[in-house]
Amino acid sequence: MRIGVQTRALVTGASAGIGRAIATELSSRGARLGLIARRADRLEELAAELPVSAAGPHIVLAADVADRAAIESAVASFVSQAGGLELFVANAGIAHYGPFVDAPLEHAEQMIAVNVSGTTLSVAAALAPMIDAGRGHVIVISSGAGLRAFPSAAVYGATKAYDKGFAEALRHELSGTGISVTTAFPGEFESDLHAHERELLPDWRSNDEERPPAELATAIADAVEADKRGVYLPREVRLLGLNGIAPRLVDRILVRLRGPSAAPRRD
Ligand SMILES: NC(=O)c1ccc[n+]([C@@H]2O[C@H](COP(=O)([O-])OP(=O)(O)OC[C@H]3O[C@@H](n4cnc5c(N)ncnc54)[C@H](OP(=O)(O)O)[C@@H]3O)[C@@H](O)[C@H]2O)c1
User: Fold this and answer.
1) Whose alpha carbon is nearest atom 47 of ligand 1?
2) What is the pLDDT of residue 207?
3) Cis before 151 (ω within 30)
4) Taking the mean position of all CA atoms in its chain, how far away is CA 172?
């Protein structure tokens, strides 16, 4: 799909980090945007900063992706105001790190609500008008942690593996419908994802490795235009996929790159 003035695009989690960068990139390519997140003030600020699309003003839609009625209403409102939907980015997500047995179970519940239910409910809402139109593209933001889960991020990694599996199956299921699906597997990018817990991050999670989210946004927009199955950035993230066939090899690579906290058990 070529992204341009004819593209009506919705981005969840557009108020910060990667979602904000994706919205900015799509806008620079001419798309008319719908911006979804809970913080309406941040979305309004972004909408005012983005170049105006020749197709019409960007639309701010405050909604919680984990609230089915709210996300369905936000997507329906965008479709009715913009007249259609070609591109949907399921990006909204949260993270809590820490050893599973020590962490409050509420953290697990919150991650499952946003990263699993939120992705599922928002993609379902977006697919309805795309199926009617017989065209569209969905991007799901998983993570390198969805390819190989890390200690101190058991639930986060599991939610991102869900996102991967969900998107992978949909890409095949939707074959022949005019709708395609791309999954993104980011490594470490500058964002607010860990702003609430910087001091709790495990040793293997390095702030020094964080890259600018604009780089990821460009790769994702290019991947949509090329109808790529996946985006792996940085490229080494792809190596984590080897975990399915050679987990001990991946452990060894991770220990070398990130130290023993990335794979403390030897077997
Ligand atoms: N940063 C990384 O290194 C990295 C790596 C791999 C994958 N990812 C994934 O990238 C995605 C974006 O994360 P980020 O790093 O950009 O984090 P971020 O800066 O914290 O942004 C998260 C976005 O999600 C929104 N959000 C959170 N809960 C929501 C909810 N219930 N309903 C609607 N919107 C919600 C937030 O907006 P409000 O608070 O305004 O609702 C915010 O706009 C996530 O899915 C994350 O798992 C990030």
Assistant:
1) 93
2) 73
3) no
4) 19
CA of 266 to the centre of ligand 1 (A): 33
Of the candidates 217, 164, 232, the one whose C-alpha atom is nearest the C-alpha of residue 21 is 217
Distance 183 CA to ligand 1 centre (A): 15
| b (16+ CB within 10 A) / e for 3-38 | beeebbbbbbbbbbbbbbbbbbbbbebbbbbbbbbb
Q: What is the pLDDT of residues 220-242, one digit of tens each?
A: 999 999 999 999 999 999 999 99
**pLDDT tens per residue across span 92-131:** 999 999 999 999 999 999 999 999 999 999 999 999 999 9
Residues touching ligand 1 (Cβ under 6 Å) are 12-19, 37-39, 42, 64-66, 91-95, 114, 118, 141, 143, 186, 188-189, 191-193
- The verdict on pTM exceeding 0.85 is yes
Task: Examine the residue annotation and report whether 156 is marked as an active-site residue of this protein.
Answer: yes
Q: Helices (DSSP H) in the chain: which residue ranges?
A: 17-28, 40-49, 68-82, 105-111, 119-133, 154-173, 213-225, 247-258
User: How far apart, in whole angstroms, are the C-alpha atoms of residue 233 and residue 116?
Assistant: 22
Q: What is the 8-class DSSP label of residue 136? A: E
Domain architecture of the chain: domains with CATH: 8-240 (3.40.50.720)
Q: Which of 170, 63, 65 is CA-nearest to residue 112?
A: 65
89: number of Cβ within 10 Å: 31
